[in-house]
Structures are given as C-alpha cells and as structure tokens.
Amino acid sequence: MAAMSMIQALNSALDVMLERDPDVLMFGEDIGYFGGVFRVTEGLQKKYGLKRCFDTPISEGGIIATAIGMGAYGLRPVAEIQFADYILPAFDQLVSEAARLRYRSNGEFWAPITVRAPYGGGIFGGQTHSQSPEALFAHVTGLCTVIPSNPYDAKGLLIAAVESNDPVIFLEPKRIYNGPFDGHHDRQVKTWVNHPAAEVPEGHYTVPLGKAATLREGREVTVLAYGTMVHVAEAAIEETGIDAELIDLRSIVPLDIGAIVASMKKTGRGVILHEASRFAGFGAELSALIQERCFYHLKAPVARVAGWDTPYPHAFEWNYFPGPARVAAALKRVMEEN
Amino acid sequence: MAEHLTLHIPKPPTRPGDAPDFSHLQIPPAGALPRPDSATPARELRDLSDGLIRVLDGEGYAVGAWTPTIEPQRLRDGLRAMLLTRLFEERMFRSHRQGKTSFFMKSTGEEAIGAAQSMVLSPRDMCFPTYRVLSWLMARGYPLNDLVNQIFSNERDPLRGRQLPILYSARAYGFYSLSGNLGSRFGHAVGWAMASAYKGDDSLALAYIGEGSTAEGDFHEALTFASVYHAPVILCVTNNQWAISSFAGIAGAQEATFAAKAAGYGLPGLRVDGNDFLAVWAATEWAVARARANLGATLIEFFTYRAAGHSTSDDPGRYRPADEAAHWPLGDPIVRLKQHLIAIGEWDEARNIQFEAELSEMVRSAAKEGEAVGTLGKSKPPVSEMFEGVFERPDWRVIEQRKELGV
Ligand SMILES: Cc1ncc(C[n+]2csc(CCOP(=O)(O)OP(=O)(O)O)c2C)c(N)n1
C-alpha cells in the first residue's frame, strides 16, 4: 500500500498493465516523452520504451481509429484524449465503429480499447476544458462509460477497463486529480494525503465495472453521484445533517441498477447529481429508471442538480458548477415533500 | 529484406540536456527562389513547396524576385504591430503569474505572420485565426483595453465572461470567433470564401492552423473543399516546430513539408520564412492576387519557431533543450524587420528606443485601466450574462434556470 493521488494511481494502473501484458500499449497527444499534460503517463515511455507509450498527431479521430484497428488485431490499446472536450472529432469512430464492431461482425472482430480522457469543470478552463460529455456515450449501446471518484477506484477501474474486451470510455475528473474537491472553491485546496481512498495497493487489482459503491448509508434520501460530485455530495450531506445514503455509481454503463433500486426503495427520495448540463443529461435516465422501478415507493419527486443548460461559461464557473449550496437546497426540498 | 516488421515512432533530434541542433534543417539563402506569376498552374509550382521563400538577407537587405514594394511607413506600422504584440503579451503573461487571469498564451517569434497578413488583406476580408496571431489585431488597431478586459474576464469583457482569455472575437477587425478546439474553423474559412463567391462579392478568407493541428481531419477537409470549389481562400499553416511537447515530426514533418501537402489537392503550396516580414507579405500578396483573379486557394506554410512556452501551463524546458530558441536559424522577426528599416535608412536605434518606450507605456496604461475595472474573480459581467446568447431567443429552460439562480 502507498498513499497516491489519483494521477499516481492511474499511472500505477498503466504501469501494472504494461508490465503484465505485452499487448498493452498507449498513445495520445503529448503522452510519450512528456508524460501527458496532466502527467498521468509520466515515466512510462522511459520505462517501457518508445513503442509502448508514444505521442500521436493531433487527430482524435485518427487516435481512436488507430486504436480500434490495433484492438481488432489483438492488442489492448489505451488511448488518451487530452481533454474530453476534444473527443468529439472521434465521435463517429466511437459510435459507429468501436461500439458496433462486435455486433455487426457477429463476433469476428471487436475493439478492446480504453479511451482515457480528463473531464469536468472546476479549473477555470472555459468552454473547452470543462465539459462533461458522459451522457453522449451512455446513449450509445456498446460503449462502457466509467468515472472514478478517488485514487483507489481509479486504479482498480482502469485495470478492469484495460482488461475488458469491450470499448471503455474512462473519464477522469481532472479537478480531483490531485485532491478531493467538495465544491467549496473558496476554501483551501486539499490533497489526497490522509484520505482513506488514497491508500492504493502497488500491484494488480480490479474494481469491477458496473458495481456502485455505497459510501454512506442513510435512511431518508438516496444521493446518486459520480466523479467530483461525489465529494460535493458528501459536503452537502454533512452540512444539512440529513440522513442520506450516498451512492457513487463509478460506472454509468454498465449501471448498477440493483444498488440504485434497493436504496431508492429504502429511502423513497432521490437526488441525482452531475456537472453536465441538466437537459437530457445522465440524470434524466436515472430519474426515468427510478420512476419505472420504484414509483410506489417514492415519497417525493426525484430531484436533479446539474450544470445549467448553457455552454460552460468561463467567468461564471462557480455560478454554473452545481456546488454544495445547490445540492443542500435540493436535499432539503425533497425532504419537505411527503 | 527485413525478417520482421518493426514499428517506426519518430523522435526529435534533441531533448533537454542536449545541445540545440538545427543542422537537419536546410535553410536556403534569401532571394534564391523565382517568383512565378500568381496565375501559374499549381503543378508548375512544386519547387515553392520544398524550398523556402525568403527576402531578407543576413544584413537586412531585401533580395530576389519575391521582394515586395512596401512604403517605409507601412514597414514601420508593421514593426509597431509586432513590437506591441510582444510587449503586450509579456505584460499579460506576467499578469497571469500574479493571478489576474486564468490563462494566457504568447506568440513570441511568430509576430510577423499576423502583422503582415493583416496589412495585406483588406478590411472586407475575414481571418479565421488561431490563438497565436494577436499581431493581426494589433496591426488593425484593436483597442488594448478590450483585450485586457477579455483577458481579465472582468465586467467590461467584450465576450461577457463566456470565453477563455485570448479566445477573442472581433468581427469589425476581420477576426473570426476563436475556440479552444484546434482546427475546427479551418473549413469555416472555405465556407466564408465560397459564400463570397456565391454572392459575387470580393471578400476573401484567410485561415490559420498550427502544424500540429494539420493532423486533424478539418485540415484535409478544408483543402478538399477549397480545391473542388476554387474557393477564394488563403490557408496558412504556422509551422512553429512544436505542438506543446510534440515536435513537428509527430505531424509528419520528417516525411514531407506542410506546403507540399497542397500538391495532392491540386493547390499551390508556398513554403515561406515566417520570421521574415517581407517574405510573409510577398507570399500573401501572391495568394491574394490569385484568389481575387478567381483562381482559387493557396496553401502557405510559414516556417517559424515558437520561442516561448506553449501557454502559461507549459514549461518547454521539460521537452526541448532549454536554449533552443536562441539557436533558431531564422532569427527574431522583430529584430530582422528593424534591421531592414535601418539598412534602408528609414529607422535608427534612437527612434527605436523611443518607440519601444511609447508602446510600453501604452501597454502599461491599458493594463492598469483593466486592473482598475478588475481582474479575474474580482470583477465580472453580471451573472445573467451566463444565460444570454444560447439561442437567439431564450427557451424555457434558460428562463427557468435563470430564475432559479435569481439573476
Ligand atoms: C481538438 C483539440 N485537440 C487537442 C487540443 C489540445 N491542444 C491545445 S494546443 C495543442 C497543440 C497545438 O499545436 P499546433 O497546432 O502546432 O499549434 P501551436 O500551439 O504550436 O501554435 C493541443 C494538442 C485542442 N485544443 N483541441
């Protein structure tokens, strides 16, 4: 065990996989010699050689197309997209190719690729370094979408993603790369040091895709979150004193529907959180599933707290970001209904 | 024949710790290339894609067929735009270090490109910029205060706090809206040019893309459309050797020049010394004449060097020799234009010192004014601005959410 930041934990996962499996290789913009703009691949080119971890041309479509071709051949490529905001030039490759290769070839070909991308807001990155595109991928059958909220899960989920024979979009909440962030942007920045989930085994382990984590048990309301919003939820729950159950979904496809339904049936109230804008966000799917499966257990309408339906606005970061005050207000609102 | 296939991964000639080495570059002397008429068919112009169009020689004299005719006052205007860009960017870079803005990028060493092209193109033309051509705006007198306010995201930010610093938009100055996505406006320039032709107008478009970003599909799509429809557009690659930490070889520079890519599309491709104000000017005039004569698009590669870091988030010492910039064989565009003006008797050191002092003072006072309005986080446009401009008329979501936030 060692105390790791999320960046170190991700690096460790990639290190473990490069070591174990000669068919694992990684590539992306600036990830080779430089180790990536967020330093997730630092030292890996040096340790494993040029062809195991290398720089690519600035072509997200090219990166993903190449990864799919390599995956079809039998390698396990891990592609980095420098920011999730820049994954869109590769969207056709992901939607029409990676997601359907197995289905349309009746299992003759498949794409065991992992696509890592830093995502989410909270770093004053403006419109194109802040977005949360998870719902776009969740909508596409055939793609897995995974989002860790702490170093331990980050490593275990990334190893599981690399070992998966299905294409996995692995979104890394960049605001919590170096420490948990609960949305109180005016308070001192925290590191992962002393956080229980920063205790990360050095070797190989997996956190299964499709298994949520109940981070806090409670009786009155269920909070569903992932990524940075898990930490915002923790702060809001503590500040309101409401006896909430906090579920970190960890992967939105596959989705741990069992954990969601069990908790919702227990509490009868739900608050769904995401940074992405609200309309047709992943919260809409969660909310629909809950009303389909738990309607007769509900005591209040399910609430969603999300980014506003605008592009990510640079100067208004903290007006846009669904921080603890907005989450707390939603918690109180669902508690007031009977 | 090799027994096994091996995977080739390109490597730059030097890395930190190595001595800077540009000996692999072939730099022909100034004035060496002929200047064919701008109506010459593309297939007869291949030499211009592999050579390097240069006008200023080592002593600052203009030599050869590409020497443009420019009034000395216009040259001084160009020098002013470049110097102002340099001074302004240095100041704003420091402002970032002081926490006054969230982000900044400099164009050090590349100032000749935007400045000369901005002056050659007419006010009716439209530039589709990258984040590294501030000198385009400087050459057209864009107010420094507006730049500062945008960079500080303050109450007077002309883009109302919605966009990252330096991703300006300045329609009245022929400067299209910037975005953080690389390459995605390259095709807009072609569309703009086609629209002008459709309407029978005389507006041209000019677009920039970094050499790294030529790998994006956008670049190739734009060239295809420009070629097929003979679009009156000038498509420019600023090859500054580095794309963050990736050397130009990662964009294919070891296989072909960027100008040479034009050939496959049947377009002329000019490769130009981007640190030579006169060469930039001359190549642009050539392409403008061709486009205005309804002969379609030109691809121009500007061979230059990104002398500063990629952005405020970057430390180039981590991936290239620390003093590489000082060894760039094509020098500093500001120094070279100044040297030329002095060589032709239109400038001297004393005037230059005075000039620099005046421009520094302009930059200082614009920065101070912006600071008085407010810097990042200390002042911003009203929060209601966050909800404006999503649609032409706000829909119910925006109206309700605005109410929920109480703005
Ligand atoms: C579509 C897209 N992919 C990746 C990035 C991240 N990124 C920002 S600048 C940059 C390097 C660009 O290099 P180049 O095109 O050569 O221009 P330069 O910065 O050298 O002027 C990268 C990879 C981005 N902004 N947009």
Overview of this protein structure:
The complex is a heterodimer of chains A (338) and B (407). Chain A is α/β, with parallel strands linked by helices and 338 residues long. Chain A has two domains: 2-200, Rossmann fold, CATH 3.40.50.970; 213-336, Rossmann fold. Chain A has twelve helices and 14 strands. Chain A has a seven-stranded mixed beta sheet, sandwiched between helices. The model of chain A has no long low-confidence stretch (mean pLDDT 98). Chain B is α/β, with parallel strands linked by helices and 407 residues long. Chain B has a single domain (45-311, 327-376), classed as Thiamin diphosphate (ThDP)-binding fold, Pyr/PP domains (Rossmann fold, 3-Layer(aba) Sandwich), CATH 3.40.50. Helices cover 36% and strands 8% of the residues of chain B. Chain B has helices at 47-50, 72-97, 111-120, 134-139, 144-151, 186-199, 217-228, 261-264, 277-292, 333-343, 349-373, 396-405, and strands at residues 126-128, 205-210, 233-239, 242-243, 246-247, 269-273, 298-303. In chain B, the strands form two sheets. Chain B has a five-stranded parallel beta sheet with strand order 1-2-3-7-6, with helices on both faces. In chain B, strands 4-5 form a two-stranded antiparallel sheet. In chain B, helix 2 (72-97) crosses helix 3 (111-120) and helix 2 (72-97) packs antiparallel against helix 10 (333-343). The chains are: A alpha/beta (338), B alpha/beta (407). The interface between A and B is large, with 39 and 48 residues. Thiamine diphosphate (TPP) sits between chains B (130, 132, 180-182, 210-213, 240, 242-244, 306, 310) and A (29, 58, 82, 86, 89).
